[in-house]
């Protein structure tokens, strides 16, 4: 079936998790920007919707290797988010912060955008570290125990996700879409590649919370 261009990105990924890889390849945000239709998202990125739709249709014909977290028990999903996504952030945020400082010292004079890149990352890192601590201490235990859930608390988490999405968008802009040809040295190349991998995981992470965990938890409460 041809893909309806008016369908939201999050809905497309919920239906077939493997579509996330296609959207990532085109730089389309299906987590914080998941409410956008495919047509709107393509227009925002100056992409041809028919081309992206064709890739999504092709992905649907291949076996789906991605875990469908929409069918997992809430406790298992919450544990996966903490173990895999929060675990990755705790490893990668300090590493990338150190790399960005080193790259700015070495190349900041010739690439003044590196100062904003480091500052944007540092602000996002601080927010993410506080966000993870709040989730693990105050919110996720309720998901494991079956509630109750505070709508205001969930709304605040979603607003923080929006801020992370905006920071990721700026990091992408400052690196030219994570263009490795911009790298001045191997450390700079490793930094750009690490930021790209961080964005990919954060998109999956936020999608699993905003579009699966939170709606399912409220539906079950």
Structural summary, described in words:
With 221 residues, the protein is mostly helical. Helix content is 72%, strand content 0%. It is built from 8 helices and no strands.
Q: What is the makeup of the main sheet?
A: none
Radius of gyration: 18 Å
Instruction: Spell out the helices and strands N to C.
Output: HHHHHHHH
Q: Flag low-confidence runs.
A: none
Strand content: under 5%
Q: How many distinct domains? A: 2
**How many H/I helical runs?**
8
Distance between the termini: 35 Å
Number of strands: 0
User: What number is the mean pLDDT?
Assistant: 90
Give the structural class: mainly alpha
Shape: globular
Please supply descriptive tags for the structure shown above:
single chain, 221 residues, mainly alpha, 2 domains, 72% helix, globular
In short:
By secondary structure, the chain is mostly helical. The chain has helices at residues 9-15, 19-25, 38-45, 49-60, 74-107, 113-145, 151-174, 186-220. The protein is 72% helix and 0% strand.
List the helices and strands and how they pair.
Elements: H1 9-15, H2 19-25, H3 38-45, H4 49-60, H5 74-107, H6 113-145, H7 151-174, H8 186-220
